[in-house]
Amino acid sequence: MKAKMFRALLPLAIVFTMVSCSSDQEDSSTSNRQVVTSYNYNDTELKLVTLINDYRVSVGLNRLEVINHISYKSQEHNIYMIDNKVVNHDYFQQRANNLVEVLGAQRVAENVAYNYQTAESAMYAWLHSPGHKENIEGDYTHIGVSVTVDETTGKKYYTNMFMKKKP
Question: With the C-alpha atoms ordered 87, 93, 96, 97, is the resulting torsion angle positive or negative?
Fold first, then answer.
C-alpha cells in the first residue's frame, strides 16, 4: 500500500520541485513600478554611451539621454547572462514592459554583446551587424548601458537598451 502511494505521489513531487525552483528567471528585486535613480557607471560604459551618441550625431541623428533605470535593467540582464552562462535576449519583453510601465516608453530595443575587451570593439561589431546597427540608428530618445565583467572568466558582457518616450 505504501509503495503504491509513493509511486503515485512521486511524479507530483518531481513536478512541484521543478516548478518551485526556477533559477533561470532574471532577478526582479526591484518592484515593477520602482524607478532606479542611481547607477555607478564604469569607464567602459561611459565610453560606450559616447561612442553611440557620437555615431548617431555623425549620421544626422539626435543624441540619446542616459537614464539610470535603463542601465540598471541592462545590468540585471548582464548578471542573468553571467549566472546562466548564456548570451541572449531572454526576458527582453519583461524588461521592455518595465520601461513602458515605469518610464512611459513607446518603443524599446536592446543590443547585447560578449567578450569584447573594449567599448570600441563592441561598437564596431554592432555597426557591422544589420540588426544591431538598426537599433543604434533607431528613432529613440534615451539609452541605458551596462558592461559587466564575469569575475570567474574575466569576460565582459554588454547590454544596452534604447527607448523612445511617449510624447
Answer: negative
- Residue 78's Cβ-side half-sphere holds a number of Cα atoms within 13 Å equal to 27
* Range list of H helices, the chain: 2-20, 43-58, 68-84, 92-103, 119-127, 130-136
pTM of the model: 0.81
**One digit per residue, pLDDT tens: the chain, 167 residues?**
444 533 443 343 333 333 222 223 444 444 467 999 999 999 999 999 999 999 999 999 999 999 999 999 999 999 999 999 999 999 999 999 999 999 999 999 999 999 999 999 999 999 999 999 999 999 999 999 999 999 999 999 999 999 999 88
Chain centroid, CA 40 distance in Å: 16
Question: What φ, ψ does residue 152 adopt, rounded to 5°?
Answer: -75, -45
Q: What span, in angstroms and rounded, lies between the C-alpha atoms of 69 and 47? A: 18
C-beta neighbour count of 25 within 10 angstroms? 11
